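Revision sheet: structure tokens.
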Amino acid sequence: MKRAALGITSLLLLTGCWDRLPLRDLQMIDVIGIDRDEKTKNITVDLIVTSLKSAGKGEGEPIAERTTLMGPSVIEAVGKTEYMDQGPFLAVSTRAFLMSKSFVSDKPVEELKFLLHAPYTSINTPVIVFAGDMDELTKYKTSNRKAPIEKLNNFIKSLQSNGVIRNVSMLEFIASADEPLEDYPLPLVRYKEMKFQIEGAMLFHSGKYTGKQLTTEQLRMLMFVLGNDQGRQRITGSIQDSESGIRNITYGFSVKDVIRSERTQQGSGRLPKVTVGVKLKINVFDIGDNIDTMKPNYAVKMEKLLSKRFEQLAAEMIHTAQEANCDVLGVGKHIKAYHPKLWKTLDWRKDYPNMTIVPKFEIQILNTDGFELYQ
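Predicted:
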């Protein structure tokens, strides 16, 4: 009995928080924003830091504050935190690196390589191109529904979970400079009317901006051609076909499944022809009228029209990527892995823009039963 009492007393003594760091004293970086002055070429680093107001009993009210640092380079700007009253900032909790278009257009990897060796830095954090002013992210200080910084993390996560675009981490972005086949689209994001929205994607080859961008519609086609499910997104648009006499029919559907295939064969000349097949299984909620389901004969007709339309859009996306010499489809990786003899005959960066890459869509509408309007 005495031993039990002694054990309980010891547990009570050992479970205290005598050595904890007070929550209100923590300085956690939520976002690091990097910009370059086009005239002076100086670098501006904005640190948006979350501190806790009225902390207690495991909770508190987060407050977002902005600290701006300047210097001739990123590392020199960040180094100035050593002389600030807050002390050095730890970027362990960083949720996003926001880089301006000006910064990413001029050898960004050379400025960021030091992060691979910097202590307490989160380099698995997504990289975003931000087309806006960092002031907009700290306009509202408190953690309410209007606070932009509280929405940012969820928005970035949703880009990948909904199949809009795959998040590229800072580690991947820096490492891509030494990988000749690592090409990425980085999302171009703006904060407008108190909401985050994506305006397309900037194309990068080996860590360098190619000067080309994908529109939001082209980005959607890219994700389809890559075989990525669109998650909970709803795809809408309009379609017309002169041969069928169809004019401006609106469509709306959700994606049930995406199946991708790739076939490489010898073309008419020296370069191969690559056909990328995409099979989309969709559930339609609007296709010319507000309907839930369709008769099979009408569904087959619309499947062909949608397939044709998506092939046109995907071909435009591929043309933009080839103009940028940016292999976002990973065609080079596929040829190197599965056609090594063919790969040895290619001078990839010279040959890729001139290759024939054909998208082939096959769309299947799943909800066709029970609709009797179309005869």
